[in-house]
Amino acid sequence: MTTVRLPLFPLNSVLFPGLVLPLSVFEERYRAMMRELLKTPEDEPRRFAVVAIRDGYEVAETAPGLPDPTATLERGPGAGFGTDPLKAFHKVGCVADAATIRERADGTFEVLATGTTRMRLVSVEASGPYLTAELDPLPEEPGDEAGALAEDVLRSFRQYQKRLAGARERSLATGADLPDEPGVVSYLVAAAMMLDTPTKQRLLQAPDTASRLRDELKLLRSETAIIRTLPSLPAQDLTRGPTSLN
């Protein structure tokens, strides 16, 4: 294992390897990060780390609010994350590769990145214009019976899709064939299911692919049963989450 240091982008969501992450970047700390990433040659990866926030705010406050309108606002790269930012984040995250970084006329950025590999936070540094983190790569082990579990998960996921389509009163359109490689299946299903952040985080940091697939199989069966009782549900894109405003 080789420890690396990368820019750190905390979010109120979980990024999985292979999944697309669109970002609308307007905070100065993250704008500074993007300006630095743009210095990387185009033929080299423009990498940063994404972690889910455990305790803190994705977007720092810009004006005093209730209950104390005279309170002094936090400034700097660690604003909103307390005196020790490491404690504010989940310890397992994902490295992202920014395929597109486009600066708008007002100095904000549109970014399109893709999750690549899992990593574990070792330390967080807040002395520069943006947060950086020391990271250890987190290998993905297949575990026992990953192939058979992936087939079961895909079957259950198709039933889940059908139930969602019925609850939304719309026709089912997957747009593409689903993959069959166990690791890819496990991440796609984890990202596509309508789950809260702690549950998605649990799936991300599963000890191996088989463990993640077993967990997903239980969740799919449970969620599919629940959907039967719901009259309508919001739409969910299977490979791309909502744009994060930062």
Automatic annotation (TrEMBL):
<dbReference type="InterPro" id="IPR015947">
    <property type="entry name" value="PUA-like_sf"/>
</dbReference>
<dbReference type="InterPro" id="IPR003111">
    <property type="entry name" value="Lon_prtase_N"/>
</dbReference>
<dbReference type="Pfam" id="PF02190">
    <property type="entry name" value="LON_substr_bdg"/>
</dbReference>
<feature type="domain" description="Lon N-terminal">
    <location>
        <begin position="6"/>
        <end position="224"/>
    </location>
</feature>
<protein>
    <submittedName>
        <fullName>LON peptidase substrate-binding domain-containing protein</fullName>
    </submittedName>
</protein>
<dbReference type="InterPro" id="IPR046336">
    <property type="entry name" value="Lon_prtase_N_sf"/>
</dbReference>
